[in-house]
Design a protein that fits this description.
alpha/beta; 12 helices; binds magnesium ion; single chain
């Protein structure tokens, strides 16, 4: 069987937030994404790039990268996708969200051609999807209370910390709910002894794990923090692709894998394999993304320990439908072919 692409096109969207989104680095009101559509005989695979300025990426750098990749995509049998993805990766360093979009579109197209869901193409049992947490951004206490009420159906909440009011906010949340919490400091604690005190206190407050307590360059300090605490510590900003796992493994108990950081599903599966070899736990996370990229990440979620796939639930104008659903916090994959999403306008 041979699958050749006969058309490549692009669509840009501006995703609007239901609420203003704040983390320790700043705030956002909308998020621009670009979707690559790769077609073969009128069947189209969709791939989303949700670029982050934190990694010096935006929709224009993504589009530039797509243009450079077009000739490789057109001349390849898409079924040989691992070879193709390697070639695309080598076009230029970085541009991981664009690389993720190409990987996503090709896997969506192949599995649609084969008329099976992407998870089936990858040999993954859809029944083993994990629970996903629901993220509550930094906000006024009133807004936090409102957001927690909106998240009633989610059994685990993820709270953004790493600012001066951490304790006040967690105490306030504990008055409203006794649900287990994940917390994400987004590199917000600079001093290792402060990080240790915070982590030990958070453990007493019913927190299950802490993501990226300290800046990514302080790996020796993280090794010290890990020795002095017992909560699982998950690396996020410390981890981009497989190459970073070896450096981070001594300072953390697990890694947060995101398609937009690592360059796609193919790379993410490699990372899961390597993380398991080092006895690290795995989390699959996301940026603010539409349900296209979230549904793509959900395809591999049965392979991991923790999921934080709520980026599409924080936006009000998702361009896609029929993707992954969440029932009582559990990710539910459909039987649709490919990634399983359709454009809302069609
Ligand atoms: Mg994080």
């Amino acid at each position: 069987m041979i699958i050749f692409a006969d058309k490549i096109s692009y669509k840009k969207y501006s995703l609007k937030f239901k609420h203003e989104w704040r983390i320790s680095r700043g705030s956002l009101e909308q998020k621009k994404i670009i979707v690559i559509e790769i077609s073969s005989d009128k069947i189209t695979g969709y791939g989303e790039s949700a670029p982050s300025s934190h990694y010096n990426e935006n929709v224009d750098t993504s589009l530039n990268f797509f243009k450079k990749a077009e000739s490789i995509i057109f001349e390849s049998n898409l079924l040989n996708y691992r070879e193709l993805i390697d070639r695309v990766s080598n076009i230029a360093p970085g541009e991981f969200s664009a690389k993720a979009a190409i990987d996503m579109a090709i896997l969506d197209l192949i599995s649609k051609k084969l008329q099976i869901p992407l998870y089936s193409f990858l040999g993954i049992n859809k029944k083993n999807t994990p629970l996903t947490s629901f993220s509550i951004g930094i906000d006024s206490l009133d807004m936090i209370e409102k957001k927690i009420k909106e998240a009633e159906k989610f059994p685990i909440l993820k709270i953004k910390v790493g600012h001066a009011e951490d304790e006040k906010m967690i105490k306030f949340i504990r008055k409203i709910t006794d649900k287990p919490l994940y917390v994400d400091a987004n590199e917000g604690w600079i001093n290792p002894d402060i990080a240790i005190n915070k982590i030990n206190w958070l453990q007493k407050m019913g927190v299950l794990l802490v993501e990226q307590p300290m800046p990514a360059n302080l790996i020796d300090e993280m090794i010290y923090v890990k020795e002095k605490t017992t909560l699982p510590l998950i690396a996020d900003e410390n981890i981009t692709t497989t190459a970073d796992i070896f450096k981070a493994k001594d300072g953390f108990h697990g890694i947060n894998i995101k398609l937009m950081k690592c360059g796609g599903i193919t790379e993410a599966i490699k990372m899961i394999t390597i993380a398991k070899f080092f006895n690290l736990r795995t989390m699959i996370g996301c940026m603010i993304e539409s349900s296209l990229a979230i549904s793509a990440a959900a395809q591999i979620s049965p392979l991991i320990d923790y999921a934080d796939l709520d980026g599409n639930l924080l936006i009000s104008n998702d361009p896609y439908k029929n993707g992954v659903k969440v029932t009582d916090g559990k990710l539910i994959l459909s039987d649709n072919i490919g990634i399983g999403v359709n454009e809302k306008s069609t």
